[in-house]
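In the previous chapter we treated chains in isolation. Here, by contrast, the input contains two separate entities that must be folded as one system, with a combined length of 212 residues.
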Amino acid sequence: MSPIEVSLQAALDALGDPIRRRIVRELAGVPDWTRACGTFSHLPVAKSTLSHHFTVLRNVGLLEQRDEGARRLNRLRREEFERRFPGLLALVLDEDRQGDDDRPER
Amino acid sequence: MSPIEVSLQAALDALGDPIRRRIVRELAGVPDWTRACGTFSHLPVAKSTLSHHFTVLRNVGLLEQRDEGARRLNRLRREEFERRFPGLLALVLDEDRQGDDDRPER
C-alpha cells in the first residue's frame, strides 16, 4: 500500500496505538532492511498482536517488508509518508524526546 | 488546558474521531468567538455526544470557550496547537481537500 492512497483517518488510527508508534520509532533508529519482525519480541504484547500491528503499519504505507530466508525485514517509508502526511511522522519520532508517556495502554 | 501539556496520545485520540475533525474544520472557517456550540446541531450525533466532543477538543488544547449570555462561543487555538504539534492541525484542515472520507463512522 502506498501512503498516497491512505486516508487521514487510517493514518490517525494506525498511529493512535502506542505500541505501533514504538515500532515506528525503533525502525527509524536503524538502517532500512536490517530489522526483522522477530526482533520486536521485547514489546509487551502477544505475538499475534505484534503481527497485527505490523499489518496495520504496512496497510497505511508506513512499512515495507520483504522476506529473507526465515526473516521478514522492514523498511520505514519515511519520505513517502512524509509527502502524504507532512509533519505526522516527525511527531511520532519526537514523542520520547518530548517526555510523552508511551507506555502501552491498550 | 494549554496544548503544551498535552501528550501526542491525547492529541491523536482527539483527532481520531471524524466528527471532532469536522468541528475543527468548521471552526477554522469562521472568525474566533463567532460560532456557538449550539450551531453544530446539523452534525449527525446526539446532543450529549456533541457536548462530549467539545470537551475532548478543549482538553487537548484545541478549543477555547467562553460564555456569552446563553451561548458558549468557541475559538480554535491554532497557533498554540501548531507550536506543540507542528503540522497536525494542517492535516485535519486539508482533509476535505485531499478527497478524504470524513463521514461519521462511529
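The first helix of chain A runs from residue 8 to 15. The first strand of chain A starts at residue 35 and ends at 36. Compare these points with the single-chain example from earlier in the chapter.
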